[in-house]
């Protein structure tokens, strides 16, 4: 059982990183050539967040997974829009303010009213 946890903890992210490098290596854009390693890392970062959202039952851990996904996409945006860094910074700032803070406040309200953050126990939220 311990070996399975070790494999999931390190094997899946390592495989995602390797696949990201293989996929990005297939890109044939001259403008993206110097950024290929960073693009692979940003793609893997996005997939780590997605993995976190899919495997965690705690609401705040899922919010952190969402933040990982956002950071991966923002890194890609920052790499590809290097001529407009102010636009990228404004986008990241507004996303942090409106996305993360609102999700944390909603998570706090859910915990305060229902007493749990386990997403399997949140059946009362169904409409």
CATH class: Mainly Alpha
Mean pLDDT across every amino acid position: 80
How much strand? under 5%
User: How much helix, percentage-wise, in residues?
Assistant: over 70%
Rounded radius of gyration (Å) = 18 Å
Total count of domains: 1
Distance N to C terminus? 39 Å
N to C succession of SSEs: HHHH
CATH names the topology as Helix Hairpins
Q: Can you tell me the residue ranges where pLDDT is under 50 for at least 5 consecutive residues?
A: none
CATH architecture: Orthogonal Bundle
What is the strand tally? 0
Major pleated sheet: none
Structural class: mainly alpha
Which tags fit this structure?
127 residues; mainly alpha; Helix Hairpins; 0% strand
Topology:
Blueprint: H1 2-25, H2 36-55, H3 59-80, H4 85-114
Helix pairs in contact: 1-2, 2-3, 3-4
In short:
By secondary structure, the chain is mainly alpha-helical. The chain has four helices and no strands.
Write up this protein.
- With 127 residues, the protein is mainly alpha-helical.
- It has a single domain (2-119), classed as Orthogonal Bundle (Helix Hairpins).
- 76% of the residues lie in helices and 0% in strands.
- It is built from four helices and no strands.
- The radius of gyration is 18 Å and the shape is flat.
